[in-house]
Design goal:
Layout lengths: L1 H9 L6 H4 L1 E5 H4 L8 E5 L2 H11 L6 H12 L1 H28 L1
Length: 104
């Protein structure tokens, strides 16, 4: 992450990166948990964080769900298996799809 930050800073206008680059993560796509509607945003943009802080009070994730998801993410063995299996399945789907396209 530090190397990426150095590369962005070296680009023209890179000094604005802290205000313009945001990381968004959601369980709906990465963990097939669309019904949970849980995610997070990491940003160094103070104005964005302040604006979202004002509305997050009404959209908070229930504590039991936060605890459950933190336990899931803390289980390194399960996470490693999940990520490997997910990567395998994505590669399998990609291979099947591209082979069908090449047949056309």
């Amino acid at each position: 992450a530090h190397l990426l930050q150095q590369e962005v800073q070296a680009m023209e206008g890179g000094d604005l990166a802290d205000d313009l680059v945001h990381v968004v993560f959601g369980f709906s796509k990465d963990f097939c948990a669309s019904g949970l509607r849980v995610g997070c945003l990491h940003s160094k943009n103070a104005a964005l964080n302040k604006a979202l802080d004002n509305i997050s009070y009404f959209n908070s994730t229930p504590c039991p769900l936060q605890w459950s998801l933190s336990q899931l993410l803390s289980d390194r063995q399960w996470m490693q298996h999940y990520l490997q299996e997910n990567k395998r399945r994505l590669l399998e789907a990609y291979t099947m799809l591209t082979s069908k396209w090449s047949d056309c």
